[in-house]
Amino acid sequence: MAALRAYYKLEERVGVTVTSLAEARTRIIENSIHVAGLHKQKAKALKQLARIVSERYSSGFGSAIEGSFEDVRARLQELPHVGPKTADVLLSIWGRPTISVDTHVDRVSKRLGLASKKARYEVVRASLMEAYRGADYRVIPMYFMALGRKFCKARRPLCPTCPVCNLCPYSKKTKRL
Question: Which residues contact 132 (CB under 8 A, 6 or more apart)?
Fold first, then answer.
């Protein structure tokens, strides 16, 4: 996975602390995360975010993640370049009960009938959180991403070979079995 390779390279070359990212040259960050795509925009965003976090939370980022789930989620989304998905990824990493929804999770959820076709991020997230147990929240996005990348592709889904095609209303409706 490109994002993981970028993370490890960034960790090796720069470090992945707020201080190391804030102090690093943008060009080094760019070169480190190049493999993940959109490296110039992401490098600028990471550097800006690290600078703001270090200024706003000089006592340590731990204070940013204290409080109720909704308060912490809202606080994270006040930061530049942090939307609902990024906030949910971070909250999940920190052990908070949430499900992050990327493009694959969104598509798979809708095709499996777990969310309506026109549902937006928050509705898809809430539908998944209602359908699964809290203990599964961290793995559901990973499973759905894998399913979306390998079988449930946006343009030409591979329904006949999909391991969940018998459960999928989309494959039955489009007669892709």
Answer: 99, 140
Distance CA 56, CA 58 (A): 6
Are 11 and 45 in the same domain? Answer: yes
Domain boundary among 76, 95, 114: 95
Distances (CA, A) of 32 to 42, 46, 47, 57: 11, 12, 13, 26
Evaluate whether 70 touches 88 at the Cβ level (below 8 Å).
no
User: What is 81-141 written as a DSSP string?
Assistant: T--HHHHHHHHHHTT-S-----HHHHHHHHHTTSS-TT--HHHHHHHHHHHS-GGGTTTHH
The number of domains in the chain is 3
pLDDT in tens, 141-176: 999 999 999 999 999 999 999 999 999 999 887 766
Same domain, 124 and 169: yes
- In a shared domain, residues 137 and 164: yes
pTM of the model: 0.84
pLDDT in tens, 86-140: 999 989 988 899 999 999 999 999 999 999 999 999 999 999 999 999 999 999 9
